[in-house]
Design a protein that fits this description.
The protein has helices at 16-27, 51-56, 75-91, 103-111, 121-134; strands spanning 6-9, 29-33, 61-62, 95-100. It is α/β, with parallel strands linked by helices. The protein is elongated, with a radius of gyration of 19 Å. The longest helix has 17 residues, at 75-91. Strands 1-4-2-3 form a four-stranded parallel beta sheet. The N and C termini lie far apart (55 Å). Strand 2, helix 2 and strand 3 (61-62) form a beta-alpha-beta unit.
């Protein structure tokens, strides 16, 4: 069987990063973080951003330090960002290595979940207006 993704998952401080860095170096891979907190810039304490392991080995990583703490980052955005990084890595003929501990993010990519578009504020406002003018359904 041929696979196109290596997944390393587990709780914080269990050695995922060092294993992933070594695998990426040995197998010509790149890292995609599946961590709901590592996406935020300047939030290094408690998030386990052991970037030294990647930097020392010249390993390219994705989805770490990509948004400001004031920004909303959610499952829908993760799936979109992950898919873009995954495709980019495959186009370079490298192996994507997903590393993280956010189970919902990992499950969303591996098994699919919430396969819909984000909330549309215009549709939501229209529905609210209709509900207010028509009253509750009988």
């Amino acid at each position: 069987m041929n696979y196109n993704l290596i997944t390393i998952l587990g709780p914080t401080a269990t050695g995922k990063t060092s294993i992933a860095a070594q695998l990426a170096e040995d197998l010509n891979g790149e890292i995609i973080s599946a961590d709901s907190r590592q996406v935020y810039k300047n939030m290094n304490i408690g998030t386990g951003k052991d970037l030294e392991d990647f930097i020392r080995r010249n390993i390219i990583y994705h989805l770490i330090d990509i948004c400001e703490p004031k920004d909303e980052y959610n499952l829908f955005r993760f799936k979109k960002d992950f898919a873009a990084a995954f495709d980019l890595i495959l186009k370079k003929n490298k192996i994507p290595i997903m590393v993280g501990g956010t189970g919902l993010y990992i499950k969303a990519f591996l098994h699919g979940i919430f396969e819909s578009d984000p909330v549309d504020p215009l549709i939501r406002a229209r529905l609210k207006t209709e509900m207010e003018t028509q009253g509750p359904a009988a």
